[in-house]
Amino acid sequence: MLIWINGAFGAGKTTTAYELQRRLARSRVYDPENAGYFIRKNLPKALWEADFQDHPLWRQINLEMLRLLAKSEEHIIIPMTLVHRPYYDEIVQSLLDEGINLKMILLLTEKSTLQHRLRKRFEGTDNWAMQQVDRCLQALHHEIPGFPLPTDTLSIQQVAEKIAQHCSLTLLPDTRSPLRKNLDRILTSLQHIR
Questions:
Q1: Helical spans, DSSP H, in the chain
Q2: Residue among 19, 14, 11, 18 at smallest CA distance from 108
Q3: What is the pLDDT of residue 118?
Q4: CA nearest 171: which of 61, 84, 77?
Q5: How far apart are CA 43 and CA 45, in angstroms?
Q6: How far apart are CA 77 and CA 2, in angstroms?
Q7: Ranges under pLDDT 50 in the chain
Q8: C-beta separation of 16 from 79 below 8 A
Q9: What is the DSSP letter of 55?
Q10: Which of 87, 99, 77, 56 is CA-nearest to residue 164?
Q11: How far apart are CA 49 and CA 32, in angstroms?
């Protein structure tokens, strides 16, 4: 099963993905952003798009990778903001049309919550992610199909549990201490600073 965790920047996609992966047997996280970094690393800056999703190659790479990963015995967790409907159709709808078992989860968060979380990243108040908030919220509420999951009042653990419930998956018991849970989440955040 492919589990795509979609949401605005700051919604908790990556943290949720790794929380889910820790508690879901035979699972891995696949990060589509890596294709974007590969493209940027190998193209002259003059050929860069403002958003690497605008490169047709980014969409092609991820579509083909997800087709391959769908053949594995593992659950593939995909934390990625995808809010441009033509790109959703090109990747996600193509996979669904092929009969691939893909669940689209939409992490819905209030604008003020997103702004607060993005400010905590110390990227400034006018960074690229902050500029995308309204566009993301509009698309996630009105244009992108999926299972809507409001998360403002939920812990990361509760979000992971609700995703598992929606996907009819059984999570392993979480035997970590509260300190270890917090440390794991901090490490995940630090490892994914771009």
A1: 13-23, 33-42, 56-69, 85-88, 94-97, 111-119, 128-131, 133-142, 156-166, 178-191
A2: 11
A3: 84
A4: 77
A5: 6
A6: 6
A7: none
A8: yes
A9: S
A10: 77
A11: 16
Token couple for 133: 């908030």
Which domains, from first to last, does the chain contain? 2-191 (3.40.50.300)
Q: What share of the chain is helix, strand, coil (3-state, %, to 5)?
A: 55, 15, 35
How are strands ordered across the β-sheet holding 102-108?
A: 27-29, 75-79, 2-7, 102-108, 147-150
Tell the residue number behind the tokens 């809507």, with chain if given: 148
N residues, the chain: 194
- The DSSP output letter for 92 is I
- φ and ψ at 158, to 5 degrees? -65, -40
Read off the pLDDT of residues 117-129 as tens digits, 9 standing for 90 and up: 888 766 666 777 8
